[in-house]
Structure formats: structure tokens, C-alpha cells
Amino acid sequence: MEPFTVQVPESVLSDLADRLSRTRWSRPWDRPGWEDGVDQSYLRDLVAWWQDGFSWRAREAELNRYDHFRAAVRGTVLHFVVVRARRPKGRMPLLLCHGWPSTFYELLPLADRLSQVDVVIPSLPGYGFSDPLDGFRSANRIPALYAGLMTEVLGYSRFGIHGGDIGAMVANRLALERPDLVAGVHVTMPAEPYLEPGTGLTEDEQAFLRDRRISQERGTAYAHLQRTRPATPAHALADSPAGLAAWIVEKWRDWSDCDGRIERRFTKDQLLTTVMLYWVTNTIGTSFRIYRDWALASEDTPQAWPDDDTLIGGVAGAPLPPGRRIEVPAAVALFHVRQPREWAERAYANLQRWSPMPSGGHFAAMEEPDLLADDISEFFSAVER
Which SUPFAM superfamilies match (predicted)? Predict the structure, then answer.
């Protein structure tokens, strides 16, 4: 375990500035706005700010206010942030897990608000400053890597875990696989339950699944590409910073609770800091590996690899194994997608907290950090009693 400082070489920033200055814009779309993808006028404004107003060195200084480390965990080097409790009282530590297209940066507001406990925020393998995993289907190793980070590297014997998006999938799997280590699991995306043939669904569950199929048709072309042909967009996005910004920022607008006005929720600097963490590390392509490995976003469609026992269960692409439920105390905070509680109860044997939130979206840790931090704190305080 070695201390780590975020410090991008000047040559990388100079190359970025050159590429931004030579951005080749597409011909104007025949239907302006966001309906067909990223609005070009907004993207032009964002790139102009990136060139003339955004200071990466200032953002580096902000990131480096936190204690960063890198450590080899079972053969893979992970980057992680540790925020120690201000007044250590023997409270259970928390592991916070980010998703896509996000980074550890999104979760830093939670760490600032959970100051009564130790907080650990790793970067997913292949994201940011964490090394990628080697080998096809290697993403199945992520829960075990996180367990190793907490126990073998940091020395915790038991911990709570929170996750959103892919981070929720990791959290759910780790809770399923290692209930001896995980005292409780808090997520914004419930695990996918296994349904026995002929299982009767409530009206609310049927409506939820219908709506999910519709939303997948409208908004998950990116996921289909990332899980079936990930190398193709990786080549393009690794070469064009404007293209990378378009690919990421579209999701931050579509999935957040911003009413179509992205800067109602995020500043340009926040958006570009996220984009930069992918750009300066050249990790957009390796971030797609989880989609390839887990066949994400195919809940109600035929699996890309049917009957493949290497597909991890309980994530969005595949249900929990038959007869299995997550046994540890569980909590779900609902922001972006509103599953019925009975759907989640099929996956969790001990669902203790169910919190439909009044506002916030997919990036809840940055959109509504107070709401989310309070929910996490109250749940784990109850678990510890």
C-alpha cells in the first residue's frame, strides 16, 4: 500500500489542448437539441470552457485534499481513497462503490458527510488510476478484490458496503458471497432476483418490467455496443476528447434529475473532472470490460451468451442463482429507477430499509449527497445496534 498523488504529466495536458483546438465538428444535425443525442451547441460551449476556463491543476489540488493510495490486491493494483473518521469510536467502516460513467470522484461528497466512520472509495479495475483486470470474464473477480482490499490491505474484519449502478452490482455480489465480512449492504439499484418458472408477479412488478423494456429500447444503445463490440467505440473515444465528453455527458444529463438542464445539477468543472479522469488515464475502453463480461442492460432480452456459467448472477444482465437470496441486512434508496418493494424482497431475505427519495437521479452521491449520506448513516447505525 503506497500513497498516491494525482499528478498528470504536462505532456498529457499539452496533447489534450492540441486535440481540443483541432476538434472536427460534425455537420449540424437537422433536429437541434438533445433528442437524438448530445446537443452540439452545448458540447461546443463545454469544449470552449475546457480550453479556456477549466483548470485541471486546480481540480488536481482539490482531489489531492484526500488521501489516495494504490495497492496490489491479489495481483491487481487498485487505486482507492481513504477518509478516516474524525473521532474514531470503533465504528464499522464503509466501502463505497461507484459505477459507470462515473469515478471515485462522484462519491467524495459522501465521504465528507460520513465523517463518523472510516470511508474507503476504490476505483473500479480499469477505471481511472486502477489497473485493468486481465482476461475475458475477469470482472467476476471484482467482489473478491474489494474484499481483499478491505481485509488484507486495510485490516478490517467486517464492514458495510454501499454502491450505485455497477457499484451496486459489486456490493450485492459481495454481500451474497461474503456475508461473513459484509455486515450490511446499501444500494441504489437492487439485485436482480431469480424467478422460478410460473412465478406470479404483482401488477406493480409487471408494470415495472414493461416500463423497463421501453426504457431499454429508448436509451441503452450505448450498453448494447459496450457489451457486444466494446473495442470499436473505445478506439474513437480514446482519440477524441470532444467525443469522449459527448459519450459521458449525455448520460449525466439523461440519468440525472435535472429536467433536461444539466447544469441545474452539475457545473462544467464537475462534468469535465469526470471526463478528465477517463481521458488522462486512457481508461474509457477498459471501463467497458464490465459490460462485456456481465452482459449489462439485457434484463428482459436473450442473453448475449446464453447458458454461459461465467456470467455473474444478480447483476442487471443475469439474476441471482436459483434458490439464492442476499441474507445480510439490506437497504435500498431509490432515486433513478423505482422498482416495487416486492421485487426487491425477492432478492433480499432481510430488507430492512426502503427509501424512495423525493429528488435526485443516477448520480445521487453528487446530486443529493445529504439525502443519500443520511440514509446510509441511519441504516448502518441501526445495523450496528
Answer: alpha/beta-Hydrolases
Q: What is the pLDDT of residues 95-144, one digit of tens each?
A: 999 999 999 999 999 999 999 999 999 999 999 999 999 887 788 899 99
> By the 8 A CB rule, do 350 and 330 touch?
yes
The two beta strands, 351-356 and 330-334, are parallel
List the Cα angle 74/75/76 in 5-degree steps. Answer: 100
- Model confidence at 204, pLDDT cuts 50, 70, 90, reads very high
In 10-118, DSSP assigns E strands to 67-73, 76-83, 94-97
DSSP symbol at 55: -
Q: Which regions of the chain carry the CATH code 3.40.50.1820?
A: 63-197+311-384
Residue 378 has pLDDT above 60, yes or no: yes
Distance CA 213, CA 201 (A): 16
Length of the chain: 385
Q: Contact 348/184 with Cβ under 8 angstroms? A: no
331 vs 334: CA distance, rounded Å: 10
Domain 63-197+311-384 has CATH 3.40.50.1820: yes
State how far the alpha carbon of 133 is from the alpha carbons of 74, 119, 287, in Å: 11, 24, 10
Task: Provide the 10 A C-beta neighbour count for residue 104.
Answer: 25
Helical axes 268-279 vs 56-63, angle rounded to 10°? 80
Which residue type does 378 have? E
Q: Which helix (H) or strand (E) holds 182?
A: strand 182-187
CB 162 within 8 A of CB 171: yes
Q: What is the DSSP string of 330-368?
A: EEEEESS----HHHHHTTBSSEEEEEE-SS--TTHHHHS
